[in-house]
Amino acid sequence: MKKALKVMLILMALTAFAFATSALAEEFFVVKEAGKIAVTDKKPADVKSVVKGPFKTKAEAEAALKAAVKPKPPTTGC
């Protein structure tokens, strides 16, 4: 009986660890460095270079990157 309890306790601890590591998932940022805007998986040391983020998936970050670099129409008429 005690052995079964120990095994169950170990399984519960492993399950909790698995859920905790998935909660610490990777984050993606849209950053501007040296005049270029790019997607990175690490938060830069200079917080001012972060354009947008954090994003949970790389696809979300890339969509934000496309929106950030989309050229704006001219404001003056012909």
- Determine the N-to-C terminus distance: 86 Å
Please summarize the sheet with the most strands: 3 strands, antiparallel
Helix content: 40-55%
Strand order, largest beta sheet: 2-1-3
Number of helices: 2
Mean pLDDT over the full residue set: 80
**Percent of residues in beta strands:** 15-25%
What's the number of extended β-strand segments?
3
Label the structural class: alpha+beta
State the shape. Answer: rod-shaped
Q: Helix and strand string, N-terminal first?
A: HEEEH
What are the low-pLDDT stretches, counting only 5+ consecutive residues below 50?
none
Radius of gyration: 22 Å
SSE arrangement:
Layout (H helix, E strand, L loop, with lengths): L1 H22 L4 E6 L2 E5 L9 E6 L2 H12 L9
Antiparallel strand pairs: 1-2, 1-3
Q: How would you characterize this protein structure?
A:
The protein is of the alpha+beta class and 78 residues long. It has a domain at 24-71. The chain is built from two helices and three strands. A three-stranded antiparallel β-sheet has the order 2-1-3, with helices on one face. A hairpin with a 2-residue loop joins strand 1 (28-33) and strand 2 (36-40). The radius of gyration is 22 Å and the shape is rod-shaped. The termini are far apart. The mean pLDDT is 80.
